[in-house]
Amino acid sequence: MSLTNKVAIITGAARGIGLAIARRFAIDGAKVVIADVDDDAGEAAAEDLRAIGEALFIHCNVAERLDVRNLVAETLNAFGDIDILVNNAGIAVGADFLDLEEADFDRVLQVNLKGTFLCSQAVARHMVEKVEAGGEPGTIINMSSINAVLAIPGQVPYCVSKGGVAQLTKATALALAPHGIRVNAIGPGSIMTEMLASVNSDPAARARILSRTPMGRVGEPSEIAGVAAFLASGDASYVTGQTLYADGGRLPLNYTVAVPDAE
Ligand SMILES: NC(=O)c1ccc[n+]([C@@H]2O[C@H](COP(=O)([O-])OP(=O)(O)OC[C@H]3O[C@@H](n4cnc5c(N)ncnc54)[C@H](O)[C@@H]3O)[C@@H](O)[C@H]2O)c1
């Protein structure tokens, strides 16, 4: 198992893509910490994963510095180390640009971008100390999106936050490369989770998504977990500062290429 005895924190892992990553990491041998604001779902997810391996839920709002400090302290207390951080927690607030509230803009940026920074800095401080004491360098994986480069007019703060995550990934990768710590991002396309559910239940919106997805289907959370497992493993030992897009072919799609009706 590629992650045997590694300690991994996954934020926003009470459900969706984060939970799929936590499950995959547990299957691959890691001890996993589920960090989320949803206590009930987070506790239930951890209980579920304890059938596979060691798993713990820790309440954490990634946008709150003190919560993040507590997440690191409690993880070290429970498992004595942190090898992998997955900054997956994310929210989206849809609004027409002209009506977008300042508070909603701030809220999305605070969770998606500032939360990624706060968790990365707090965990990187531990990882650098460990390297300086002769330990193995860890790795950080950020959850970006195809919306780092493709825009949705009704999702301005989300698109801005994910573009920011892509650049945060590159800058953090350069800052931590001298310590051997790798930092990468995943850019999912349309993945079947609660975040996508409202779009997916609208047939016209679903048809629009599929008409721009050459593979002709939405992705499963486990397909993003597979990418995370690769980036977290030694197989990615020379990969840093990258965003790996898993999008069924959406980003390469040009307007001259017809996508057949699917599903
Ligand atoms: N689903 C998709 O199609 C898709 C596509 C591209 C990128 N992503 C990204 O993948 C990540 C996960 O998305 P998902 O679809 O699984 O979403 P989801 O809404 O199903 O789950 C998100 C989880 O994050 C938690 N969360 C929200 N705010 C938090 C906070 N402040 N602190 C800690 N936890 C918090 C929620 O409680 C929830 O458990 C997000 O960053 C999202 O932007 C999703």
Automatic annotation (TrEMBL):
Keywords in alphabetical order: Oxidoreductase
Domain Ketoreductase, residue spans: 6-189
Pfam families noted in UniProt: adh_short_C2 (PF13561)
GO molecular function: oxidoreductase activity, acting on the CH-OH group of donors, NAD or NADP as acceptor; quinone binding
Example GO biological process: fatty acid biosynthetic process
NCBIfam families in the cross-refs: PRK07231.1
PANTHER family in the cross-refs: 3-OXOACYL-[ACYL-CARRIER-PROTEIN] REDUCTASE, SHORT-CHAIN DEHYDROGENASES/REDUCTASES FAMILY MEMBER
Family to which the UniProt record says this protein belongs: Belongs to the short-chain dehydrogenases/reductases (SDR) family.
Protein's recorded name: Short-chain dehydrogenase/reductase SDR
Organism for this UniProt entry: Polymorphum gilvum (strain LMG 25793 / CGMCC 1.9160 / SL003B-26A1)
Classification lineage: Bacteria, Pseudomonadati, Pseudomonadota, Alphaproteobacteria, Rhodobacterales
